[in-house]
Each structure stands twice: as structure tokens, then as C-alpha cells.
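<amino_acid_chain>
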Amino acid sequence: MHTHHRVIVGDARDLGVHCEDAVELVVTSPPYPMIELWDETFAALDPAIEDALAAGRATDAYDRMHDLLDVVWDELARMVVPGGIVCINVGDATRTVDGTFRRFPNHARITEAFRQRGFTPLPTLYWRKPTNAGTKFMGSGMLPPNAYVTQEHEHILVLRQGTEPRTFRPNATERYEAAYFWEERNEWFSDVWTDITGTGQQLDAAGRDRSAAYPEMVPYRLISMFSVYGDTVLDPFWGTGTTTVAAMMTGRHSIGVELDESVCDQFTQRLPGVIDQAAERNRERLAAHVRYVGRSDTGPFDHTATHYSVPVKTRQEREIRFYDITSVANESTGHVVEYEPVTDLPDDAESFSLE
């Protein structure tokens, strides 16, 4: 098995100029309107935004920022296959403009934009970010009534192109091999993620501050949840390539679009570590399942995984298969990743029978 990954240096609003490919999944984290980190980015694309912020016209600036994002959403509506999924990691903003503190509901504004473009909103995920509990107060601290709730989570919007799920041929190998374990399903599809910490990336501080990169586990889970082996994943706000790394690790093709060419350099430096990173993630998942099977409170297990001789809960899990990366080659058209199937459980995993 092999996958292909390419990065396009350009404006995501011009996806039609750069890319005609259809994609099955979008996983991205756009610049967040009204978060100060992204003021320069938005103002460079529309100078009226800087004028609005300087004049204290918060609603005008907010609307103009989302108008810029709307052009990208138009492109996604064209590229995503019927039944394909768009996952957008975004946080709401809190900000004082012209002396007034308020929240700017980015998640609601983007959800409505996609609904207007024919997408069906599905249940939203929330992941809670690590915070410094000692310095998180906003407003009047311990004195009512003028303190403010601290926002400690981000939204992951899940949107389906059209109203019907994707269809597959009966017993499609790429779908059944991409299954997840029962316990993973219970954890991943819970609406609040509290176990994701750090960035999971090898970035220096300047690169992380510039990109506002999300942890690698976020796109890894989303790609595993909403696509199958061989699908193509698009990230129109590529940043430091976290989504591409996750696509490589999960055996999917990927396309990234990034306006800032300078952030691409660090991505190339990360590639040698992807082989070990993917293997470690596969070992972690298999070992975690073995531990789950060994617990006294998790049975019964009525089936056995075909490729790993380990008990599983359901028939849908039987063909689950993991692939290690064997090589990453830089070619003129992008990066080509080669894989080989994982054939054994981790060396330190115990064996279990169905008796």
C-alpha cells in the first residue's frame, strides 16, 4: 500500500485554481476570527478589517473575517464528495473592543455557513485544552456579578456534504480494515475529549506560536473516525502539516494548502520521525486493546480479529488491520509513503483465548 501527499503553496480561497481533486474528508483548523493572533492575517487579506478594529467596530470586523472564510467554504462545497465529511476545529473568541467585553461565536457562524451550502450539521465534538488553573480568571475574579466564564474547550464541527451518508460496495476491504476497536469507538465518539494534551509535534516555540497548531491526536482521531484507507484528506489551512502527518500515519492520501511558504521548512524536518511515530501509535492501540480484553469487567468477547488473533467485541472489528510506514520519499509531485501490514501483536502483549 502507498499514499501520496502534496502541499500547495497558495491561497485557500483559490482552491479551484490549484486543485481539481475530489476529497472524502476535510480536517482543518482555520484562523479564528477575533482572536488577536490572527488579526494581521485577516487584515492583510482585507485592510478594512484593521480599520474596523481600530475604530472599535467589532461586529463589522467579525463579519468581514468570516466573509473571507466563506470563500474557502465555497471551495469545499465543490470538492467534497457526496456524503463526505468536513471537520473544523475552531474556538469562539472573547475580546474587549471599544471598552466592551463580549464573546464571538465562531462555531455557530461557521455551522450556519455550511448549512447554507447544503451540508448537514452532525453532532459536535469538544476537546478541552490544558489550562493554567492559577491564572485563568477573567473579569472581577471572586466578586459577583461581573466575572466571566473561562473558555477551556474548542469545537470540532462535523458536517456532512448533503443529507445521505457515503455508500460502499458490500464488504469493502478498505472500510473493514480501517475499523476501530469497540473501546476506541466509545472514547472517540464521546462528545467531550478531555484526554488530549500537548501538541504532539516537534516544533520550536516560534513555529508553534505562528501556526497555532493543534495536537496531532486531534486529526489522527478524526481521520480514523470519518474516512477509510485510501481516502484523500484535505487541509486548506495546512499550517505546519499536522493533518498531513496524521494522514500519513493512518494510510490516507492528503492535500494541504498553505499561504505562508516559510512554515513548510519545518515539515520536511519532521518527516524522518514519522516512521517511528506511526509504528508507536499502532503499538499503542494494539497494546491498549490487549489490556482492555484482559480486564475483568469488559467481557464477553464473541469474535476474534483475523489478523491478530485477539478477541474483539463485534463482527465489524474482525478485519481490523494496522499498517506501519516503511519509507517516505520526496518526489516532484509530493511525498510518497509506503506501508507494510502489522502482522503481530506488540512483543509485551499477552495472549488471550475466548474460553
